[in-house]
Write a structure and sequence with these properties.
homodimer, about 190 residues, mainly alpha, 9 helices, DNA-binding
DNA sequence: ATGGGGGTAGACAGACCTGTCTACCTGAGC
DNA sequence: GCTCAGGTAGACAGGTCTGTCTACCCCCAT
């Protein structure tokens, strides 16, 4: 998930805010990150910030949208790099889970944090996961069971994502995930 | 997960605080719940609160410990009610995921919310999940593969827990979980 | 009967939160 | 040359957060 962006100076104010917010929200959590900090670290004036994002919730929406695009592109690319078949799934995920900046799934974390006060994030997460499931289905062999298999693998991936967040290393999660994928595709 | 407690009046101040904090933390999130609200809703004086829990993090620790005991007891009981074998797993989980007050796993949510500022919750979550995995292993048939199967099922359960949090109903998650459990135990 | 442990009520400090507002600057297009 | 869109800097309001502190009270065991 290391996606290099162009040097900060060439980005528009809006993009600088969005990149900064992404990094802070993903790493520290949304509630833990004050608007003031986003403003300070993106090197923008307060008025400029509020012109682009009238409220913090607008920024949260933009953050999740940005994250969604970036993650889907990374996922498609990484699956392709690993051959684009069913065997690409676990190694591709492994790259992410082993990233030192890994902090879990932005959507799962945001739902856990904000669903109570900002329920719209639930729908956003559901839409994201539906696209992930479709991307998984696309690498599975065509068969009557493909949709069900993709659902089950997507669920197991969510489990691996969460487990890698509190285990000391992601290896056990990857091993369990591999076992599940293998059992599902054999059945 | 509906565990009825004795009438509020007979509880000690500490227990009243703990029950109130549990309900608010679990339902609304920890950061979203101010100490003042816990104090007001548990009907206790501020000084009393701070005598029992010198800081909010102490309350968080107590909340997770309380939740852990309550959940493990509920899980053991519910597995037993469903026959205590491998086939008890999905129906037992189903009872939880279908509970109208269901809001996901307290430990997963807390890690997502607080890991950045209070890393101790990661260890607490890991210890909780290790006990859950042991409880799962206890209902599986003895075999060379039992430990690995229990790990994989525990991971799939985490996935189902998360998925049921953002899906409109938990049924798809339960179906996918059942498919995974079946495939793993056949293999 | 009296001393003290544990409780109540609530003011207060100081930090941080989101969001508004004023005043000024700069550079590109007309 | 002037206008104006879009930027900067930062004071300010009003709320909420955690945590401290004073002052009082009540019940029970010594």
């Amino acid at each position: 998930m290391a996606t290099d962006h162009p040097a900060v100076e060439v980005l528009s104010a809006r993009d600088r805010i969005l990149h900064t917010a992404h990094d802070l929200f993903y790493c520290d959590g949304i509630r833990a990150t004050g608007i003031d900090r986003v403003i300070a670290e993106s090197g923008v004036a307060k008025l400029t910030f509020y012109r682009h994002f009238p409220s913090k919730n607008d920024l949260v929406r933009a953050y999740l949208d940005f994250r969604h695009r970036r993650w889907m592109a990374w996922f498609a690319d990484t699956l392709a790099r690993h051959g684009g078949g069913p065997d690409a799934l676990v190694p591709a995920l492994g790259e992410w889970l082993r990233d030192p900046d890994y902090r879990g799934c932005a959507f799962i974390n945001t739902v856990g944090e904000l669903a109570g006060s900002f329920p719209e994030v639930i729908e956003i997460a559901r839409a994201h996961k539906a696209e992930v499931t479709a991307a998984i289905a696309a690498v599975l062999p065509a068969s009557r069971k493909r949709a069900g298999q993709a659902q089950a693998i997507a669920l197991a991936i969510d489990g691996a994502i969460v487990r890698a967040q509190y285990d000391e290393t992601p290896e056990a999660a990857l091993e369990a995930l591999a076992r599940i994928v293998k059992a599902l595709l054999k059945a």
